[in-house]
């Protein structure tokens, strides 16, 4: 999303910090992915941004939803989304949540351990399960596979175990890591997990039919990115090469950041500029506890200072407003040399994981959300 005159007017009108979102960009992202991978069943990972207006727009487009908790399930159902449009994809679930989801009509679950399968069998008998496989995350900003996923042989054992528990193993899932810049990460993953389909059929007579390619499609920040179309072409080519013998194959995708990230701008304001030793510091009214949690691991946003875009930039330590020393955004933010009190600071393409991570720490409220469509 670009800093337009409408965004600048909002920045001078509304109290900061706030997130401004363009719903039409979200719709465009959905349609692009659907066109890039035809017949793909899209499950939006609502943890990226679960604002009701976003969920309603995607609901009306026909999206399905990746949920991680009973709270997310109920939120969707309150918006008229039926349970058959959800996958409970978090492989670490409370037993009571599994049971309640099952009672509400959710019959599709993810797992990556025998204990999780035991919990599903006990609390959601007969349900369908997808086994999550660990794949290479090297080319991503946020590697995920140390926490989630199993290797190929363990995955096959889990598929057989699921069937023994009278669950219905339907496929496998993987995630190449959030913000993955190499389209071949998907082809490498598909080539790897394809073996599971053939091993399960040959060794246990289990026909798998779901390939869940997860998320990881990048949005533009400070590095060049492949297009959705390029990724889609590689996914389809890899499937035709490595899964051509699988009958009635269904492709799932679980986009989160790539669906909403470039739809939003986080608008903040300078509270203080000062010098500490040899370092120049700038403090703003957003921070790691109020919209910018991902920067703790150096997730890099493109930053603009309103009216000073063409000024020379120098490095600053950029920090948030709270009295916690953890609340430091970047050690080396390149900002306009003359940035000062009350300057407006824009974090570009910040529609994902900003308001979801927000807290009320220090009694400071999370950023509010406004929609471009209401300001036109």
Describe the SSE topology:
Layout: H1 5-13, E1 18-21, H2 23-36, E2 41-45, H3 52-61, E3 64-67, H4 70-78, E4 86-88, H5 95-104, E5 108-111, H6 114-123, E6 128-132, E7 140-142, H7 152-164, E8 168-173, E9 178-180, H8 184-204, E10 210-212, H9 228-242, E11 250-253, H10 257-260, E12 264-276, E13 279-284, E14 303-305, E15 313-319, E16 328-336, E17 344-347, E18 368-371
Parallel strand pairs: 1-18, 2-3, 2-11, 3-4, 5-6, 6-8, 8-10, 10-11, 13-15
Antiparallel strand pairs: 1-12, 7-9, 12-13, 12-17, 14-17, 15-16
Protein name: ornithine decarboxylase
GO molecular function: ornithine decarboxylase activity
InterPro entries: Ala_racemase/Decarboxylase_C (IPR009006), De-COase2_CS (IPR022657), De-COase2_N (IPR022644), De-COase2_pyr-phos_BS (IPR022653), Orn/DAP/Arg_de-COase (IPR000183), Orn_de-COase (IPR002433), PLP-binding_barrel (IPR029066)
């Amino acid at each position: 999303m670009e800093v337009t005159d409408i965004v600048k007017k909002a920045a001078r009108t509304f109290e900061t910090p706030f997130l401004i979102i363009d719903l039409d960009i979200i719709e465009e992202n959905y349609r692009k992915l659907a066109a890039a991978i035809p017949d793909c069943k899209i499950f939006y990972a609502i943890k990226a941004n679960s604002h009701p207006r976003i969920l309603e727009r995607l609901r009306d487009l026909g999206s399905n939803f990746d949920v991680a908790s009973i709270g997310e399930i109920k939120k969707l159902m309150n918006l008229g989304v039926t349970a058959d449009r959800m996958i409970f994809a978090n492989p670490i679930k409370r037993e009571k949540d599994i049971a309640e989801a099952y009672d509400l009509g959710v019959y599709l679950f993810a797992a990556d351990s025998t204990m999780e399968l035991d919990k599903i069998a006990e609390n959601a008998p007969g349900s369908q399960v997808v086994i999550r496989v660990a794949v290479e995350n090297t080319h991503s900003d946020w590697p995920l596979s140390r926490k989630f996923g199993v290797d190929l042989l363990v995955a096959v054992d889990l598929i057989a175990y699921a069937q023994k528990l009278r669950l219905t193993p339907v496929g496998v899932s993987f995630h190449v890591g959030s913000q993955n810049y190499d389209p071949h990460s998907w082809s490498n993953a598909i080539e790897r997990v394809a073996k599971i389909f053939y091993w399960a059929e040959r060794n246990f007579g289990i026909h798998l039919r779901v390939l869940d390619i997860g998320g990881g499609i990048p949005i533009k920040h400070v590095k060049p990115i492949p297009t959705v179309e390029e990724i889609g072409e590689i996914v389809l080519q890899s499937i035709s090469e490595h899964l051509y013998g699988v009958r009635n194959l269904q492709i799932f995708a679980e986009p989160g950041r790539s669906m909403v990230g470039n739809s939003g701008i986080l608008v903040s304001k300078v509270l203080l500029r000062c010098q500490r030793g040899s370092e120049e510091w700038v403090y703003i009214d957003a921070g790691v506890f109020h919209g910018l949690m991902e920067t703790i691991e150096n997730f890099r946003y493109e930053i603009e200072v309103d009216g000073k875009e063409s000024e020379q930039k120098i490095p600053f330590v950029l920090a948030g407003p709270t009295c916690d020393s953890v609340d430091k955004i970047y050690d080396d933010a390149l900002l306009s040399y003359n940035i000062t009190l009350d300057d407006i600071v824009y974090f570009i393409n910040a529609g994902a994981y900003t308001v979801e991570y927000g807290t009320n720490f220090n009694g400071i409220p999370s950023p509010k959300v406004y929609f471009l469509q209401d300001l036109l």
